[in-house]
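Section 5.1 Outputs to date
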Amino acid sequence: MSDEVFRAVARELGDGFPPENVLYPVNARLRASYPDGLTIADIIDVFLDDSAVGVRTALTSRLRQWDAESVETWVGATVPQSPERRARIYDLLGLPVDAHAEMDAHFPREGGPVVIAAQQPWDPWYTSERRREHDFYWRAYKRVLADKNWDEATIGKLDIATTEVVHRLADPTRPEPYQSKGLVVGYVQSGKTANFSGVVAKAIDAGYRLVIVLTGTIEILRSQTQRRLDMELVGRQNISAGVDDDYANDEDWRHGNFLEHEIDPNKTNEIPAIRRLTTSTFDYKSLLAGLSALHFETVDHSLPLNDPKNLYPSNIRIAVVKKNVSSLKKLVADLKKVPTELDQIPALIIDDEADQASVNTIDPKKMKTEQIERTAINGQIAEILGLLKRAQYIGYTATPFANVFVDPEDSVNVFPSDFIVSLERPGPYMGGADFHDLDDVEDDDKTPVNSNEKAYVRDLRAECDEDRSAEQLRALDSFVLTGAIKLFRESKGAKPYRHHTMLVHESVKQAEHDAVANDFKALWKSAGYSQAKSLSRLEKLWAEDFAVVSAARGSELANPSSFGELEEFIGAAYDKISEGASPVIVVNGAAEKDYKQDSLDFQERGVWKILVGGTKLSRGFTVEGLTITYYTRRTGQADTLMQMGRWFGFRPGYRDLVRLFIGRTVGGPAGADYDMYKAFEAIVRDEQEFRNELTRFSGVNEKGEPWVTPRDVPPMVFQQLPWLRPTARNKMFNADLVYRGMGGESFSFTMQPPRGDGSINARHFDAVAPLLKSLDESGSFNFVDKDDVSRSFTARYGIVPAHVVLEAVDQFEWANGWDFGPHREALSTAIESGLLEDFAVLLPYPKTREPIEIKGWHEKLPIVNRKRQEREYRTGFTGTAVRERDAIEHIAGSPKKNGGPLAGALHRKTRGALILVFANDPAPRQLKRAQAGPVDSRDFATLFSYALPYAAEPLGRIGFRVKQSGTGAIVDAN
């Protein structure tokens, strides 16, 4: 086909238009050159022609948009991203059914963000026509992204994701106010700011006129976010129209790298200008005499601001405010004085790091009245939402656990009651899965080619100061060496590496930051980088580590063929790192005057430094050019730990050079050691489970209604490590434990209700009768006592189908306040998934007590003494068979336990193990316990412990869901 045909076809694939029969308009365009016209087969050939680059690019982009469309009438009853949607598109394009499969093969569906949403109380408003009519700031933002070398596909996916968010907000022009509240879930350091910048651009194009961006609790993050929005969205003309010159010394401002709008919004009535209420150097301040800055212009004073006639010409106000009580109170105070009616102002609140500070952490059980009391920052956000009836709230976070535990019935809180959007993982992003081997590669088979751990992770296991210094030196050598490799790549034509950083994160305490910084300063002086003595050490490191990994993971990049090619760049890297006051910058809450060092400013200059810090270098803040991380800090909250993963992010041109030095034996409470690499692996898996839950709950039924809404069935949040909670305790008051599974680890179920008349005991004994009848073997098992001496015990045992065990335990009754449900969920899930087929059931026989005759039972059974808990009620027992647990954990596959040869022989990958114990439980007045039979089944309790197969839950898993609670009036907590 000719270029003329290609151009004619491409023109029919315009941006923002619905799919329509393509043959007729193409033939109309080609009437002069092709009087007989093309056939639909010719059009399909053009679509599939690899040389028709423009056509394929346009069609790929349109299919991406059409696959994701959710508001246009042409979609009919088809669901976004479904095969039915794609078939609908082909039909509308006029393509025959027999061509669909080949089209799918050449243009596969790409997927998109996962959405859980409530039905909205309005007809779709954010249509393609509306988007075409008002798109000035979105088009400008797209140009910025293209200038940053974002490819068309990545920009296209951002377009879809941001549209998915904006169309779930209320129409800013609708007569009745409505507050839509949502949560956008991204990945740590994965471009969430790009997403909310795109949402802001589209929202202000659509008519939102007050934008409040809440950024976290530290100024360094607020300033970074302000600058990003100013540079990529607000633009030079809007900034220059203000009175502040906060970018006078900014390198990007001086070099013209800030967005320059095609039309100056300040010189036309067709495009609204943006007025900044905050700057990169100043958080929100009381406007006082400048309160008019919040007075919105109107064309027709007889109409409200939200009327289209007034709304679109009105200028935009934007404030980037950190979550600080003082700043928020000033904003609230000024809002109360605004001359414009507040319920007429369409406002957008973007809450970045929404799980930090925004969530109410007051325990509802401790509230003094039926009214809801609030923590300080949550109270200010609630007041803003209360004042601005047209405010839309969107939380952004990579760790959403605290947000989904918010009380969904709290009428002005931040629970995402309208929608949750889970963003796709960006293609070039380097995240948790890139540092771990989630496919469980065998240790002996791991190489830098097939193992992320081998490629990027280096263990810290020092047991003495000498070993610790050696590990620190290896990390420091890696930092210098990777700097040299970057400079080598620059010499071969790579884009300059403006920033090159190393992060040291060992503690949250400022005093310890000083000590660590001094350690690295001393090490820097003694390492000899400016002398020949360091070269042999660096050459060995290059040959054994970086040359090998770069060959496996960075073959497309320029790499030295010998260390000799690298030598000249080592000195240059040393010089760049040494520039200024010190190679080390401490970043914490202390005053800068306390340190003789350069300021950390990625905007004003290139930064080649070692950064030592804690909180300020974790949540939300982007450490530019981060290549080497030295991390040994322990925390008990998964969201806090994940946010410390600053080594996640985009690493263009140096992905193969990234190294994570991480503590594998970090000290903790009671002298225990914690493996932080395994902890990160656990939360990476938990995060994936959470996203899988979102996917499972998304979609609509045959009536077009959501299967579930965020309010109905909040996604389950998992916890694999018992010591690592999803989030802080004070953010989990509304969380219910609903799943508890620990593979190869036993749990004792002793939480039984008060004895009463003994009827519960009798029913429990009847429940396990089928298990007892299966115990047709006897043998010896081993255990290790408290003195680490191996001992043995005798038990009857048998193999029982898992569903029979489940039927038995389902008949048990439990003490008030204790729920067997989470354990049952894990049990039934393992059975349904085929990971649990049967149980080895053991009944230990004590060596010092003879079995006792049981009334109504055909044989004698062992009965032991176990103490009931003498608390408020006479309920529960102290334990089951503590020593004998080694055997069932061994049978279940625990790699840490040895129950002897018989336990090993009974092990199967899909087999759990259970111990039965019968404990004396006579009536209260019958204090003498049974020594001889016969004994009534009402006078002994049936206790059990079991272990799931290790393979079913090798890391263990705990799951939470949010409670459903009642509403209440809102008050501020004092």
